[in-house]
Each structure stands twice: as structure tokens, then as C-alpha cells.
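Usage example:
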Amino acid sequence: MTRPVEISVPKAAGELPNEKFVELEKYIDNLDTTKGALIRILHKAQQIFGYLPMEVQLFIARKLNIPGSEVFGVVSFYSYFSTQPSGKHTISVCMGTACFVRGSDRIHEKLKEELGIGSNQTTDDGLFTIKDVRCIGACGLAPVIMVDDKVYGRVTEEDLPEILNTYRQKTIDS
Amino acid sequence: MTVYRTNILVCGGTGCVSSASLDVYNKFKKLITSAGYDKEVKIIKTGCFGFCEQGPIVKIEPDNVFYVKVNKKDAEEIVNEHIIKGRIVKRLLYKEPNSKRIIEKHQNMPFYKKQFRIALRNCGLINPEDIYEYIAVGGYEALGRVITKMNRDEIVDIIKKSGLRGRGGGGFPTGIKWEITKNNHSDKKYIICNADEGDPGAFMDRSILEGDPHNVLEAMAIGGYTIGADKGLIYIRAEYPLAIERLDIAIKQARELGLLGNNILGTDFNFDIEIKLGAGAFVCGEETALINSAEGKRGEPNYKPPYPAQEGLWGKPTCVNNVETFANIPAIILNGYEWFSSIGTEKSKGTKVFALAGKINNVGLVEVPMGTTFREIIYDIGGGIQGNRKFKAVQTGGPSGGVITEENLDTPIDYDSLSSIGSMMGSGGMIVMDDTTCMVDVAKFYLEFTQDESCGRCTPCRIGTKRMFEILTKITDGKGTKEDLKNLEQLSYMIKDGSLCGLGQTAPNPVLSTMKFFKDEYLQHVVNKVCPTGRCKGLAKYKIDPEKCVGCTACAKVCPVECISGKLKETHVIDQNRCIKCGACFEACRFNAVIKPK
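Running the assembly step on the lines above writes:
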């Protein structure tokens, strides 16, 4: 999480909408002070864009008058910040100790196998992203996975296909 | 103020919310309103009750009835039977797993009986989103007393005499920390609440912030007054949205009532609090790293000295205390240091909150007096090991701590006793493991965590933990040698001695501790190439019992690599060289002929 996964800063996959930059700029301009506010601004930027590609990082750097490397240094340090867009649904597998002791590693393996992707990767259809998270605090329900904001407790390997299908079906329905 | 005849308390802690307690809450709202009882019955969303295993929890007051595992449908029955007709719904009461006894009141449950609540005293009792409920239970009285009647030296004296020590893990005396920061003169000082709870499997701080946020705000104001700070920061993990939301509400309410802001309670004391979000880095629990992160930078630790009390946030004297430490302060001021220091052991006073999890019956949050033994927590409060299996070890201190085995179960828990048996208090995670847990695998799990969370600033931690993880992986893959064990130990001491901050200095602890208490298990892995629990797949050997095999071919059919041979109605054999240890044959066999590796 804290180690830089790639040396180069990924660029955005497509054109980023201008109104999002306007929104971000307005947020920065309205802050009482930008002193010590970089992490706060990055949180906001990720909320607006969904992720932090090179263009967004550079925009913030120019706006705060700091080197782009400093922004990237912070982005790559914290696991909460992502430089890649996520899939439609993010599946967070709890890798906390309580879940581990109750077999979350098997759930993790099975999920990767089912979706054919690794951690922090997105399926080709753009539907699912797998993320490992450290303890979401629902240890009473261990092992736990979270799809977007919904928590699934006491998950077994057999439950996974059904859970995934619910979201696949939802996409088809909509 | 409206007086209600009945209160329905629904747990709104993260554990219960995860098992859909908000649906239950909404259902109650709807039912009570449509039945026309909304002027008589109040529905309150509280903080964590602690008994997460049994969630969602609903408590009816003043009847003092405690319902467990309540779903939306049950809410209907509770309203129809209990609220309207006054008949308790027996089906939803807690049933003690061992004696099968039904228990109606929570204070009679073994889970609560041995607990003593100071930090958690209001959790599950009040609505955390209503400041008046906090005030009704004595909230902000301590702050009032402190800023109108006491001078700063008196407060330091009380906290020092109470014997309160930092609950974040280190155990540094809180009174001394306050005194040092107070005595450092500066035009600006800061007080920071460390809510960057990073130990995976620990959720004490989050539950306190979700269940009783004003308690922490009040304590921070008291601390701010004492050390001479007018600004407080709460550094909290971004992964705790509910706690952040409740803190936000609490801060706004406190400002509205003039309990935060300028001229608090008509005095010349000014104090305000700001929330700073972390962004997912375990090392930020270390105070100098936390301060760097709060300044918007990479959360790397600094060399100490200078300590934050000398040069902290923006180079000014800063006092950093943990959430649970703060949660004790108002109670100490109100009840006196004599009361607080009468609880606990000689050198560790008061209580400690533990997040009890893993292979235990009653997963949840427990607060016990210092000096309680592991046996009491695991067997009396925790209700013993899940599925009546055999206890193997309990880990405290998370990735910085170590394991406690059967022989030390009767150790009274305090800071010093835990260090003396090779573990540490840590922030309060307590993970129980049974005989199906492989200790090498556990050590590997923690090292996987620390090598990933190492910030990379100092070499011993950055590279050392990675090498340790690689050696452990080699061992669990069945390729380890005795030489590896030696290297592992040597590396451990090098990392401990050479690392800059607490993360690296404690990272090898889980390995050293498991190697000390489970040497045999390590040797089994490297010498005999056997994992006694069967957890390490690289060492697993599935076998077919010729006595039991009837030759039905079920196992051969499911084997994904087709390594099982044998004719119909003849004994089958597994080719060990090709077997990938997936366990499919074991699942498929209806005659118990496939022996799972032990």
C-alpha cells in the first residue's frame, strides 16, 4: 500500500470533463487556507473524479504552487488514493486478523479465481474491482466482504457466485 | 422535554449496521408511528453495545430487556407483543451457548458481568447524535469544573495521580505528557486525538467515537485548557465514515451550545476542534508520522527527539493522545483520582477496552479492569472457543505484539505483565486462535501486513520485513530449511535494533513470539515438511484410506489436475507430485476415505 506500485504517473484513460476541474478549483478557492490541506484536497478530487490520474495531480500541483512530484509522493504513499479508475462495483475483501483467522484468505483466492483478476484490478467488462481492506470492524461477522457499501458477513466460498450474480443481474436490469 | 414511557434502543455501531440494524431501526419507526405510539415510545439509535456477535441488538427501556439478532420481521413482533401487550418475546432473548439458559437482562449475561465500563460507559446508552443526552448523563460537567474552578497544575496533578497511561499501546503516563507540553512555552500549541486505529482486527476507538463522541471532545477541551492549546485536531481514518459523521455532528452541536469556540462557558478559554482525515497508512498511528500526515505530507516518522511535546505540528508543542485515553479523562475529573487509581493493578490503573475476535463465541467489545486474566476474558466473557475446539493462542498488540499460550492464560493483564511474556498491550486487539490456526501462517500474515505498511523511510524496516516475509513464505510453501529459521531470528533482531520508529522496532515481534512458543511447529514445517494444522497448502498431502475407499471414482472425477488414478470399485491413489492440494477430492468423497492433511 505504501510502496509505489508504478514509477510513472498514469494518465487518464479518456478526456476529463472540464466542469469537474471547475468544481475542484472552486473547492480549493473556498478553503480558509491551503496550508496543510493537500490530503484534504486529494480526498475531494478523488470524490469528484473517482480516481487521481496525472492530469488531476498536476492541476492540484499548479494550483497550490508545489512540485508535481510532491503531490504524487503523497498520492502514492496512501492506499486510499487510487491512480486507476475503479469498476462499477468495488468488492472489498476484509484482510483484518479476525477475518484471516476465520478463513478470509480462501474467500480472497476464490473471488480472484471467479473474476479472473488480482487485487486492485478491474474486470474487462468494467463491472468489478477487487480491493483488499484492513479491518472494516465487523469482526463479529467474520469473514466479511463489502460490495460498494453493502456488507456481507459470514461469507463462504459457495456464497460468492450468487453475490456476484446479484450485481451482474442488476446491471442487466438497468 | 417530552417524556416517553418506553425507549427502544437500536444499536447503530458498525458491527450491527453491517447486519442491517438500520433496517430494523426504520421498521420500528414506521411501526410505532403507524400504531400511533410515537408520542409514547421513542426509538433511539445508540452507539455500540459491544456484543457484536449477537447483532443487531435491541434494548427496551425501562423494562431492561435485551433482544439479540433482531431482524426487520422480529421488529414487528416486538412492537405487537412487547410494546403493545407488555409480553416479552422470549424467542429473541439471549441464549447462553453452553448452559442453554435464556437471559433477559444484559447485566446477568456472562459477557457483561465481569466488565467494568469507564471509556465505554455511555456506549449503547445514549444517542450519540444528541448532545443533550450526553449532558443528561453528566456530560461537559468535568469541562465546566476544570475551566471555572481549577488551575492547570491541579489538573496535571490529578491525571498524574490517577495513574492513567496511554491506551494507544505504548503506555506512557498521560499526566506526564500533559505536564511536559504545558511547561513548553510557545505562542501556539496543539492537542491531537489519535484516531488512526490501524491494528487490523481492533475497533475500540471507532466504537467510542461512534457511540460517545462528546466524551472525547470534552476530554480534548480539558486537555487543551491544561496544556494551553486553543486548537485540537482529530486525526481519523477515512475508512471510518460513520465515526466521522458523528464527530462532525457532535462538533457542530458543541459549538452551538458554546462548549467549543470562543469564551467557553463565559470564561476566557477559547478552544476549537478540527477533523483531519487519514488516507490509509498504518504508520500514521505513530505520532510523528501522524503529525506529518496532518500537515498534508507523506506520513513518514521523524527521529525523536525532538518529541512532539517540544516540536510537533507546524513546529509547535503538541500533545498526542489516543481516543480511549481521552475517553477516561472526564470520568477521572468527576470521580477523582482516588477512585480511578483504586481500579486495576499496581502499575496499570483503570480499565482497558479490548476488541475480542477470532475463534471465540462472543465476538465483541469488552472493557475490563486491568489485572483481569486472559482466562476470564476468553472463557467467562468470551464464552470459550467456537465449536468447543481447543484453545491454542491469543494475540495481543496486533502486528506489533505476540502470542500468549495456554500456560500464560492466568496472567493478570497489564502493560508490564504483557511485555514480560513477550507481547504488548497494544491498542487492544485480542485475536483468539484455536487448534486449526497455523502459527507460521499467522506470523506470515502479520509480516505480510508490516512489509506492506512499512513507509520505506529506513532500510532495516523497508527491506528487512520484506526478506522476513519471503522466508516465511518459503517455509509455508514447504521449501524452508533450518538455516532459514536462524536467519529469520537474526533478521528479527537486526530490524528491531535498526529501525527508526515503532513500526519497524516491533514488526518482528509476531515472528519472535511464535518461534519462542511454537518452535516445534516451525520445525515440523522445515524438517518434516508437515503443517500440523493443514493450513499451509504447500505442505498439504491428501491421502486415500484404502480401508474406506470403495472405488466410486467420485474423487477422480472432480480432481482438476486428474492426478487421482484407480479403476471402478478399486482403491484410488493420489499422485502427490501432481496434486495441487485443492481439497476437491475431500469434499467429493462420501465415504470419508480421503484424509485431509493434518
